[in-house]
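Researcher: Go.
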Amino acid sequence: MARGQARPRFAPSLADDLKRQLEDAITPLIGEAPTGGATGEALWVTKGVLSQVHACEAHHLDQAQEPFAWNAGNARGTVAHRALELTLSSREHVASLDLVDRALDSLGADDPRGVLRPWLAEATPVEMADLRAGANDAVSKFMECWPPLKASWSPRTETRIGADLCDDRVVLRGKVDLVLGQARGDEARGLVVDLKTGRAYSSHLDDLRYYALVQTLRVGVPPFRVASYYLDTATFHHEDVTTDMLAITVRRTVDGVRKLVELAGGRRPTITPGPQCGWCRLADSCDGPDRWRRSQGGDDDRP
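Model: Structure:
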Protein backbone atom coordinates (compact mmCIF):
# COMPACT_ATOMS: atom_id res chain seq x y z
CA MET A 1 0.00 0.00 0.00
CA ALA A 2 3.08 2.28 0.07
CA ARG A 3 1.95 3.81 3.35
CA GLY A 4 3.84 6.98 4.17
CA GLN A 5 5.35 7.24 0.70
CA ALA A 6 4.81 10.06 -1.77
CA ARG A 7 2.20 9.38 -4.43
CA PRO A 8 2.65 10.31 -8.10
CA ARG A 9 0.87 13.14 -9.85
CA PHE A 10 -0.30 13.03 -13.45
CA ALA A 11 -1.08 15.68 -16.04
CA PRO A 12 -4.75 16.78 -16.00
CA SER A 13 -4.92 16.05 -19.75
CA LEU A 14 -3.80 12.42 -19.40
CA ALA A 15 -7.24 10.77 -19.66
CA ASP A 16 -8.25 12.93 -22.64
CA ASP A 17 -4.96 12.13 -24.37
CA LEU A 18 -5.39 8.40 -23.84
CA LYS A 19 -8.98 8.46 -25.06
CA ARG A 20 -7.96 10.38 -28.18
CA GLN A 21 -5.19 7.86 -28.91
CA LEU A 22 -7.64 4.98 -28.53
CA GLU A 23 -10.33 6.55 -30.70
CA ASP A 24 -7.89 7.69 -33.40
CA ALA A 25 -6.64 4.11 -33.72
CA ILE A 26 -9.98 2.31 -33.32
CA THR A 27 -12.18 4.46 -35.55
CA PRO A 28 -10.52 3.31 -38.82
CA LEU A 29 -10.89 -0.29 -37.64
CA ILE A 30 -14.63 -0.14 -37.07
CA GLY A 31 -15.36 2.29 -39.91
CA GLU A 32 -19.07 2.73 -40.47
CA ALA A 33 -19.92 -0.95 -40.11
CA PRO A 34 -21.65 -2.34 -37.02
CA THR A 35 -19.06 -3.48 -34.47
CA GLY A 36 -21.13 -6.15 -32.78
CA GLY A 37 -21.82 -8.45 -35.68
CA ALA A 38 -25.27 -8.88 -37.19
CA THR A 39 -27.02 -7.14 -34.29
CA GLY A 40 -25.07 -3.94 -34.72
CA GLU A 41 -24.58 -3.68 -30.97
CA ALA A 42 -21.55 -2.05 -29.40
CA LEU A 43 -18.33 -4.05 -29.20
CA TRP A 44 -17.78 -4.95 -25.55
CA VAL A 45 -14.17 -5.31 -24.43
CA THR A 46 -13.17 -6.83 -21.09
CA LYS A 47 -9.92 -8.08 -19.62
CA GLY A 48 -11.07 -11.64 -20.26
CA VAL A 49 -11.91 -11.00 -23.91
CA LEU A 50 -8.55 -9.30 -24.50
CA SER A 51 -6.68 -12.07 -22.73
CA GLN A 52 -8.41 -14.76 -24.78
CA VAL A 53 -8.09 -13.13 -28.20
CA HIS A 54 -4.40 -12.38 -27.64
CA ALA A 55 -3.70 -15.88 -26.31
CA CYS A 56 -5.41 -17.81 -29.15
CA GLU A 57 -8.03 -16.53 -31.57
CA ALA A 58 -9.51 -19.98 -32.20
CA HIS A 59 -9.95 -20.60 -28.48
CA HIS A 60 -11.53 -17.17 -28.07
CA LEU A 61 -14.14 -17.80 -30.76
CA ASP A 62 -14.97 -21.19 -29.27
CA GLN A 63 -15.43 -19.69 -25.83
CA ALA A 64 -17.57 -16.87 -27.22
CA GLN A 65 -19.95 -19.43 -28.72
CA GLU A 66 -20.31 -21.42 -25.49
CA PRO A 67 -23.38 -20.36 -23.45
CA PHE A 68 -22.47 -19.34 -19.91
CA ALA A 69 -23.88 -21.51 -17.14
CA TRP A 70 -23.44 -21.07 -13.42
CA ASN A 71 -21.92 -23.84 -11.31
CA ALA A 72 -20.34 -24.12 -7.87
CA GLY A 73 -16.92 -23.34 -9.30
CA ASN A 74 -17.65 -20.11 -11.15
CA ALA A 75 -20.12 -18.90 -8.49
CA ARG A 76 -17.49 -19.15 -5.77
CA GLY A 77 -15.88 -15.82 -6.59
CA THR A 78 -19.19 -13.93 -6.60
CA VAL A 79 -20.15 -15.35 -3.20
CA ALA A 80 -16.70 -14.78 -1.72
CA HIS A 81 -16.62 -11.17 -2.86
CA ARG A 82 -20.07 -10.51 -1.45
CA ALA A 83 -18.89 -12.01 1.85
CA LEU A 84 -15.86 -9.71 1.87
CA GLU A 85 -18.14 -6.78 1.08
CA LEU A 86 -20.18 -7.61 4.19
CA THR A 87 -17.06 -7.34 6.34
CA LEU A 88 -16.92 -3.63 5.48
CA SER A 89 -20.23 -2.92 7.18
CA SER A 90 -19.86 -5.34 10.09
CA ARG A 91 -18.92 -3.79 13.45
CA GLU A 92 -17.93 -7.14 14.92
CA HIS A 93 -15.79 -10.09 13.96
CA VAL A 94 -17.76 -12.65 12.00
CA ALA A 95 -16.49 -16.14 11.16
CA SER A 96 -15.74 -16.67 7.50
CA LEU A 97 -18.36 -19.39 7.02
CA ASP A 98 -21.02 -17.21 8.65
CA LEU A 99 -20.05 -14.44 6.22
CA VAL A 100 -20.44 -16.86 3.33
CA ASP A 101 -23.90 -17.89 4.52
CA ARG A 102 -24.92 -14.24 4.88
CA ALA A 103 -23.62 -13.60 1.37
CA LEU A 104 -25.64 -16.53 0.02
CA ASP A 105 -28.77 -15.26 1.76
CA SER A 106 -28.16 -11.79 0.33
CA LEU A 107 -27.56 -13.01 -3.21
CA GLY A 108 -30.58 -15.29 -3.04
CA ALA A 109 -32.87 -12.52 -1.79
CA ASP A 110 -31.79 -9.23 -3.32
CA ASP A 111 -29.04 -9.80 -5.86
CA PRO A 112 -29.24 -6.42 -7.63
CA ARG A 113 -28.58 -7.98 -11.04
CA GLY A 114 -30.43 -11.22 -10.37
CA VAL A 115 -27.76 -13.17 -12.24
CA LEU A 116 -27.02 -15.79 -9.60
CA ARG A 117 -30.39 -16.00 -7.86
CA PRO A 118 -32.04 -18.49 -10.29
CA TRP A 119 -29.14 -20.92 -10.02
CA LEU A 120 -29.07 -20.67 -6.22
CA ALA A 121 -32.78 -21.46 -6.10
CA GLU A 122 -32.29 -24.69 -8.09
CA ALA A 123 -28.87 -25.84 -6.85
CA THR A 124 -28.72 -29.27 -5.24
CA PRO A 125 -27.53 -29.76 -1.64
CA VAL A 126 -24.24 -31.16 -2.95
CA GLU A 127 -23.72 -28.13 -5.20
CA MET A 128 -24.48 -25.75 -2.34
CA ALA A 129 -22.09 -27.59 -0.03
CA ASP A 130 -19.38 -27.38 -2.70
CA LEU A 131 -20.08 -23.67 -3.17
CA ARG A 132 -19.99 -22.93 0.57
CA ALA A 133 -16.72 -24.80 1.00
CA GLY A 134 -15.02 -23.08 -1.92
CA ALA A 135 -16.19 -19.58 -0.96
CA ASN A 136 -15.26 -20.16 2.68
CA ASP A 137 -11.77 -21.23 1.66
CA ALA A 138 -11.21 -17.99 -0.26
CA VAL A 139 -12.68 -15.77 2.46
CA SER A 140 -10.68 -17.51 5.21
CA LYS A 141 -7.43 -17.10 3.30
CA PHE A 142 -8.14 -13.42 2.77
CA MET A 143 -9.03 -12.77 6.41
CA GLU A 144 -5.99 -14.54 7.84
CA CYS A 145 -3.50 -12.58 5.71
CA TRP A 146 -5.08 -9.15 5.20
CA PRO A 147 -5.66 -6.48 7.84
CA PRO A 148 -9.23 -5.36 8.46
CA LEU A 149 -10.30 -2.99 5.69
CA LYS A 150 -10.63 0.41 7.33
CA ALA A 151 -13.38 2.80 6.27
CA SER A 152 -10.74 5.53 5.83
CA TRP A 153 -9.26 3.50 2.98
CA SER A 154 -12.50 3.86 0.97
CA PRO A 155 -12.58 0.11 0.20
CA ARG A 156 -14.77 -1.15 -2.63
CA THR A 157 -15.22 -4.78 -3.61
CA GLU A 158 -16.35 -6.09 -7.00
CA THR A 159 -16.68 -2.52 -8.21
CA ARG A 160 -17.61 -2.04 -11.87
CA ILE A 161 -15.64 0.40 -14.01
CA GLY A 162 -16.00 1.36 -17.66
CA ALA A 163 -15.29 3.78 -20.46
CA ASP A 164 -17.17 4.39 -23.72
CA LEU A 165 -15.33 5.07 -26.96
CA CYS A 166 -16.21 6.10 -30.51
CA ASP A 167 -19.71 7.39 -29.74
CA ASP A 168 -20.47 4.37 -27.52
CA ARG A 169 -19.74 1.90 -30.31
CA VAL A 170 -16.85 0.38 -28.35
CA VAL A 171 -17.16 -0.01 -24.60
CA LEU A 172 -14.41 -0.98 -22.17
CA ARG A 173 -15.69 -2.70 -19.06
CA GLY A 174 -14.19 -4.26 -15.96
CA LYS A 175 -15.11 -5.52 -12.51
CA VAL A 176 -12.33 -4.99 -9.98
CA ASP A 177 -12.07 -7.31 -6.98
CA LEU A 178 -10.82 -4.67 -4.53
CA VAL A 179 -10.00 -0.96 -4.72
CA LEU A 180 -8.50 0.99 -1.82
CA GLY A 181 -8.11 4.76 -1.76
CA GLN A 182 -9.24 7.56 -4.07
CA ALA A 183 -7.47 10.15 -6.18
CA ARG A 184 -7.03 13.63 -4.74
CA GLY A 185 -6.96 16.16 -7.52
CA ASP A 186 -4.15 15.08 -9.86
CA GLU A 187 -2.55 12.91 -7.16
CA ALA A 188 -2.93 9.16 -7.66
CA ARG A 189 -3.87 7.38 -4.43
CA GLY A 190 -5.88 4.35 -5.54
CA LEU A 191 -4.70 0.76 -5.19
CA VAL A 192 -6.33 -1.81 -7.47
CA VAL A 193 -6.13 -5.45 -6.35
CA ASP A 194 -7.08 -8.56 -8.29
CA LEU A 195 -7.59 -11.53 -5.95
CA LYS A 196 -6.48 -14.83 -7.44
CA THR A 197 -6.69 -18.51 -6.57
CA GLY A 198 -4.28 -20.93 -8.18
CA ARG A 199 -0.97 -20.15 -9.84
CA ALA A 200 0.28 -16.96 -11.44
CA TYR A 201 0.12 -16.39 -15.20
CA SER A 202 1.78 -13.71 -17.30
CA SER A 203 -1.65 -12.53 -18.48
CA HIS A 204 -2.45 -11.37 -14.94
CA LEU A 205 -0.12 -8.40 -15.42
CA ASP A 206 -1.96 -7.43 -18.60
CA ASP A 207 -5.28 -7.67 -16.71
CA LEU A 208 -4.02 -5.23 -14.09
CA ARG A 209 -2.77 -2.79 -16.70
CA TYR A 210 -6.16 -2.91 -18.42
CA TYR A 211 -7.85 -2.00 -15.14
CA ALA A 212 -5.43 0.91 -14.73
CA LEU A 213 -6.27 2.21 -18.21
CA VAL A 214 -10.04 1.98 -17.75
CA GLN A 215 -9.87 3.59 -14.31
CA THR A 216 -7.79 6.44 -15.76
CA LEU A 217 -10.33 7.03 -18.53
CA ARG A 218 -13.13 6.88 -15.96
CA VAL A 219 -11.91 9.29 -13.26
CA GLY A 220 -9.12 11.16 -15.02
CA VAL A 221 -6.36 9.96 -12.68
CA PRO A 222 -4.75 6.50 -12.68
CA PRO A 223 -4.43 4.29 -9.62
CA PHE A 224 -0.93 4.69 -8.22
CA ARG A 225 -0.40 0.92 -8.08
CA VAL A 226 -2.00 -2.33 -9.27
CA ALA A 227 -1.48 -5.75 -7.72
CA SER A 228 -2.41 -9.41 -8.04
CA TYR A 229 -2.79 -11.15 -4.69
CA TYR A 230 -2.60 -14.96 -4.69
CA LEU A 231 -4.70 -16.36 -1.87
CA ASP A 232 -3.27 -19.90 -1.99
CA THR A 233 0.31 -18.76 -1.38
CA ALA A 234 -0.30 -15.40 0.36
CA THR A 235 1.98 -13.71 -2.17
CA PHE A 236 1.49 -10.77 -4.48
CA HIS A 237 2.87 -9.07 -7.54
CA HIS A 238 2.53 -5.33 -7.90
CA GLU A 239 3.41 -2.65 -10.43
CA ASP A 240 3.34 1.11 -10.12
CA VAL A 241 1.31 2.85 -12.80
CA THR A 242 3.23 5.07 -15.22
CA THR A 243 2.41 6.86 -18.44
CA ASP A 244 4.62 4.36 -20.29
CA MET A 245 2.60 1.48 -18.87
CA LEU A 246 -0.65 3.12 -19.95
CA ALA A 247 0.76 3.72 -23.46
CA ILE A 248 1.63 0.01 -23.75
CA THR A 249 -1.89 -0.89 -22.62
CA VAL A 250 -3.43 1.43 -25.21
CA ARG A 251 -1.54 -0.39 -27.96
CA ARG A 252 -2.53 -3.82 -26.60
CA THR A 253 -6.17 -2.75 -26.37
CA VAL A 254 -6.20 -1.39 -29.91
CA ASP A 255 -4.58 -4.57 -31.21
CA GLY A 256 -7.21 -6.62 -29.39
CA VAL A 257 -10.05 -4.57 -30.87
CA ARG A 258 -8.53 -5.01 -34.33
CA LYS A 259 -8.53 -8.79 -33.89
CA LEU A 260 -12.09 -8.79 -32.56
CA VAL A 261 -13.38 -6.70 -35.46
CA GLU A 262 -11.57 -8.82 -38.06
CA LEU A 263 -12.85 -12.06 -36.54
CA ALA A 264 -16.39 -10.65 -36.43
CA GLY A 265 -15.96 -9.85 -40.12
CA GLY A 266 -15.20 -13.45 -40.94
CA ARG A 267 -11.39 -13.65 -40.89
CA ARG A 268 -10.16 -17.17 -40.13
CA PRO A 269 -8.79 -17.34 -36.58
CA THR A 270 -5.17 -18.15 -35.91
CA ILE A 271 -4.09 -20.92 -33.53
CA THR A 272 -1.53 -20.07 -30.86
CA PRO A 273 -0.38 -22.92 -28.59
CA GLY A 274 -0.32 -22.06 -24.90
CA PRO A 275 -1.60 -23.00 -21.45
CA GLN A 276 -5.18 -22.58 -22.66
CA CYS A 277 -4.72 -25.75 -24.73
CA GLY A 278 -5.13 -27.71 -21.49
CA TRP A 279 -8.82 -26.79 -21.17
CA CYS A 280 -9.79 -25.86 -24.73
CA ARG A 281 -12.75 -27.75 -26.21
CA LEU A 282 -10.97 -27.78 -29.60
CA ALA A 283 -8.08 -29.88 -28.28
CA ASP A 284 -9.17 -33.07 -30.04
CA SER A 285 -9.36 -31.41 -33.46
CA CYS A 286 -6.43 -28.99 -33.16
CA ASP A 287 -2.65 -29.43 -33.29
CA GLY A 288 -2.19 -26.71 -30.68
CA PRO A 289 -1.88 -29.09 -27.69
CA ASP A 290 0.83 -31.17 -29.42
CA ARG A 291 2.74 -28.05 -30.42
CA TRP A 292 2.46 -26.71 -26.87
CA ARG A 293 3.71 -29.97 -25.33
CA ARG A 294 6.68 -30.06 -27.69
CA SER A 295 7.55 -26.45 -26.87
CA GLN A 296 7.56 -27.39 -23.18
CA GLY A 297 9.75 -30.44 -23.74
CA GLY A 298 6.86 -32.90 -23.45
CA ASP A 299 6.00 -36.06 -25.37
CA ASP A 300 4.83 -35.71 -28.97
CA ASP A 301 2.10 -38.32 -28.51
CA ARG A 302 -1.19 -37.53 -26.88
CA PRO A 303 -1.88 -39.49 -23.68
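Model: The chain has a mean pLDDT of 89.
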